[in-house]
Specification:
The protein is an alpha/beta fold. 34% of the residues lie in helices and 22% in strands. It has nine helices and 13 strands. The protein has a five-stranded mixed beta sheet with strand order 10-9-11-8-12, sandwiched between helices. Strands 5-1-6 form a three-stranded parallel beta sheet, sandwiched between helices. The radius of gyration is 23 Å and the shape is globular. The N terminus is likely disordered.
Length: 277
C-alpha cells in the first residue's frame, strides 16, 4: 500500500508540472509549437511591411520574408517571438542580442554595416511619391515644384527632393504617415514621399484602395537587408534561405500579396550580396 501511495503522489506531481508548462506563453509570439524560440525584429506600424494588428497578429512583406527564413532555419511559425524594432533601435537590439535577426525596412548602408552584418538584399526599394489617383499634374519628379510635399518629422526624404530635384517644393512635416495620408486625401497636401514599398503598403490598405497611386519615380535606391549581429553565422544561412524563397516563387507571391493592390512595380528580386548604389 505504501508503494501505491508514492506512485499516486508522483503521478499527481507529474500532472501538475505538465499543466503548469502548458500554461506558459511568450509575449509577442504565436502559440508555441514546442520548438526552439527565435526572436525577430520587425516594424509594428508599417502596413504592407510590418504591422501589429489590433487583434495581436502580424502582417506585411517583412513578416512573410522573416517567417519563411525562420522556417528554413528550423523554426515553425509558433516558435517566433516578434519584437518591435524601431528605426533608431535596430543596431542596439542586434548588438545586445535582444533579437536573432531584424527584417524591418532596414536599408543597407556603409555606416550601418560598420555595426551589424546584413544578409540580402531581399528587396530593392526606391524613394517615390504617393499622389491622388485622379491627379495627373505630377508626371515627373520636377513637377513637385510649387506642390505641397509631405513627409514625417525627422525624415530626410522630403528634404532630399527639395535639395536635389524640386527646389520650389513646399515641405509639410507631419507627425506620422497616417496624417500625411489624411491630408493627401483631403487635398491639403499634393504628395507624400518616402520608400515606394512603404507607400504601396499604405495605399494597399482597404480604406485607401483606389484613392492613391505611386508616381513611379526612382529617386534613390534602398536595399532592404536582414540585419544580424556582427560576425554571426546566420548571415550565410539567411542568404541561402532568401535564394530559395526567390527560386520557389514564395518571394513573388509575398510581393503580390502585400503590395499588389497599389500596383507596386517591384522589379525582379535583387541578387544576394549585390547592393545597388
Amino acid at each position: 500500500m505504501k508503494f501505491q501511495k508514492v506512485t499516486v503522489a508522483a503521478a499527481t506531481a507529474l500532472v501538475l508540472s505538465l499543466t503548469a508548462a502548458g500554461c506558459s506563453s511568450d509575449d509577442g509570439g504565436d502559440k508555441s509549437s514546442g520548438g526552439k524560440k527565435v526572436t525577430i525584429g520587425i516594424k509594428f506600424d508599417q502596413p504592407g511591411i510590418g504591422l501589429k494588428t489590433p487583434d495581436g497578429k502580424y502582417t506585411g512583406f517583412d513578416v512573410d520574408v522573416a517567417t519563411y527564413v525562420a522556417k528554413e532555419l528550423g523554426h515553425e511559425p509558433g516558435d517566433i517571438v516578434w519584437k518591435e524594432a524601431k528605426s533608431a533601435d535596430r543596431e542596439t537590439l542586434l548588438q545586445r542580442g535582444d533579437v536573432d535577426f531584424i527584417a524591418a525596412s532596414y536599408s543597407i548602408t556603409p555606416k550601418r554595416a560598420e555595426k551589424v552584418d546584413f544578409a540580402g538584399p531581399y528587396l530593392l526599394a526606391h524613394q517615390d511619391v504617393l499622389i491622388r489617383a485622379d491627379d495627373d499634374s505630377i508626371k515627373k519628379p520636377e513637377d513637385l515644384n510649387n506642390k505641397k510635399l509631405c513627409s514625417v518629422t525627422g525624415s530626410t526624404s522630403a528634404q532630399n527632393v527639395k535639395t536635389k530635384i524640386a527646389p520650389k517644393a513646399q515641405l509639410q512635416e507631419y507627425g506620422g504617415y497616417s496624417e500625411c495620408l489624411t491630408g493627401l486625401e483631403n487635398k491639403v497636401i499634393d504628395a507624400l514621399t518616402t520608400d515606394n514599398s512603404i507607400l504601396a503598403g499604405y495605399a494597399a490598405q482597404p480604406e485607401f484602395k483606389g484613392k492613391f497611386k505611386l508616381g513611379g519615380f526612382k529617386m534613390s535606391n534602398e536595399n532592404y537587408g536582414i540585419g544580424v549581429k556582427k560576425g554571426s553565422d546566420l548571415k550565410a544561412q539567411i542568404n541561402t534561405a532568401l535564394e530559395k524563397m526567390v527560386k520557389d516563387g514564395a518571394w513573388a507571391a509575398a510581393v503580390q500579396k502585400n503590395f499588389g493592390p497599389a500596383n507596386f512595380q517591384s522589379g525582379p528580386a535583387p541578387k544576394i550580396g549585390v547592393v545597388v548604389s
